[in-house]
Write a structure and sequence with these properties.
Helices cover 31% and strands 26% of the residues. It is α/β, with parallel strands linked by helices.
């Protein structure tokens, strides 16, 4: 067994881990980054990037079907699944190569292996005589998350998670999706665009239940128009499968049959077997507990990303990794709470939000004002042949504290919304500024003007 000492040891090379490694190296630290799989983690290889590649392919399929509406002659002839997967995989491979080069150029030492935190500031890779222990002045735990299932629901055969769904070599004729959150509605959207008949089952009363109710109503209306079926407020009971498909029984006794069942009930913290609890790290249901500055209960040991309770988003983990590197360096970075982290769901139509829902704002501030802008009056929205809108929440006579948006490509508007919320701007501050025409982001300008008392193209 050998022992190597460095300034910083990071366990996990996903969005949080590699961001922390590169920023710490920029700030002069010697860094060892330990990853048992591939740099980039779930986001790059089994999550964000490949999923969005498939969503783009689905968008192109829909545009081909709608070609006649814009005066073009084209027809959708079907899906070349091998070609589509090749496109997806090429995007992943390109960015993996780029990330690998970036990490190397920063002078970060990458160790391939299954690391275990052995405390107090050490991570062991391997076992026995071949084991190597890396000890850091500081340690960052960033081991990511995994696709969860339900008790008694085995992931096997035609019962799959998003990881298997990304590598399917066929498009299901009929698909069932268990879970109406982000992952569930994104895959439902993809498969519908590729020609499948999809039904979503969600135990809570609405799809995307963490969003403002105004958003869920917009999405459910759009999904009905797209003929995506969904059953909300009903629980899964059991599933059976054979060589031809799956049959799901709901607690109401209703049965649903399809080619496969996608289990999309959320993601759990990937901390089992990591040694965290044994080394004394304070945990709760598998999550690592930290203070607001991402420090655990152990001195000089931090945690970031999906293992920290809160939003499980790649860009949240990325920001947390940078935050920790700067915290260690004594730069006193600002804390960005989950309520001010931008959120995008890439189904069709897209959902984009930041800040508080109307109910959350009312609970926190008491008296609030809202404004809903229907993008039916927006020229670019018409050009894109989409529908949706913007809902803004502000404190009564105070700053904007929430943005909630629905529509095609609406996630591209979230940059300005993030600045407005995070900088605690008043609508009157934003209203004088220009918004390029014709763009969808004019919707933000129109909403701000309306809330500032000078509405023009507002459709309630």
């Amino acid at each position: 067994m050998t022992d190597t000492a460095v300034d910083l040891v990071i366990l996990g090379g996903g969005s949080a881990g590699y961001a922390c490694a590169m920023r710490a190296a920029e700030l002069g630290s010697s860094v060892v980054l330990i990853e048992r799989d591939k740099l980039g983690g779930t986001c790059l290889h089994r999550g964000c990037v490949p999923t969005k590649a498939l969503l783009h392919a689905a968008e192109v399929a829909d545009e081909i079907r709608e070609a006649a509406a814009v005066g073009l002659k084209a027809s959708f002839e079907g899906v070349d699944v091998e070609g589509m997967n090749g496109y997806k995989n090429s995007i992943v491979a390109k960015h993996f190569k780029g990330l690998t080069g970036l990490v190397a150029s920063h002078g970060v030492t990458v160790v391939a292996g299954d690391g275990k935190f052995v405390g107090p500031r050490s991570v062991q890779v391997g076992s026995g005589a071949d084991a190597v222990t890396y000890t850091g002045t500081n340690v960052v735990l960033a081991t990511g998350s995994y696709s969860q299932s339900l008790p008694g629901l085995a992931i096997e055969g035609r019962v799959i998670t998003s990881e298997q769904a990304l590598d399917l070599e066929w498009v299901p004729r009929k698909a069932l999706v268990l879970g109406g959150g982000v992952i569930g509605v994104e895959f439902a959207s993809v498969w519908t665009s590729l020609g499948a008949e999809v039904t979503i089952v969600e135990a809570l009363p609405s799809l995307v239940p963490n969003e403002d109710p105004w958003v869920t109503k917009q999405l459910e209306r759009a999904f009905r128009k797209r003929k995506i079926a969904f059953k909300t407020g009903v629980r899964f009971s059991s599933v059976t499968q054979d060589d031809n498909g799956v049959t799901v029984t709901l607690e109401t006794g209703e049965t649903l049959s399809a080619d496969l069942l996608l289990v999309a009930v959320g993601r759990g913290p990937n901390t089992e077997g990591t040694g965290f609890a044994e080394a004394g790290v304070e945990m709760d249901r598998g999550f690592v507990l930290t203070n607001e500055r991402l420090a655990t209960n152990l001195p000089n040991v931090f945690a970031a990303g999906d293992i920290v309770p809160g939003l499980q988003l790649a860009h949240r983990g990325f920001q947390q990794g940078i935050f920790i590197a700067e915290e260690i360096a004594g730069l006193n970075p600002i804390v960005v709470p989950d309520s001010k982290v931008p959120r995008i769901t890439y189904c069709d139509p897209q959902i984009a939000s930041i800040g508080l829902t109307e109910a959350e704002a009312t609970k926190q501030y008491g008296d609030v004002e809202t404004m809903e802008y229907n993008t039916a009056g927006n020229a670019k929205t018409d050009i894109l042949r989409t529908a949706g809108g913007v809902k803004v929440v502000r404190v009564k006579d105070g700053p904007v504290v929430g943005f909630h948006m629905v529509g095609a490509r609406i996630g591209e508007l979230l940059g300005e919304a993030q600045l407005i919320v995070n900088w605690e701007a008043y609508p009157e501050d934003v209203a004088p500024y220009l918004h390029g025409h014709p763009t969808q982001y004019e919707a933000i300008g129109e909403t701000m003007m309306a809330m500032a008392g000078k509405p023009l193209h507002v459709h309630g």
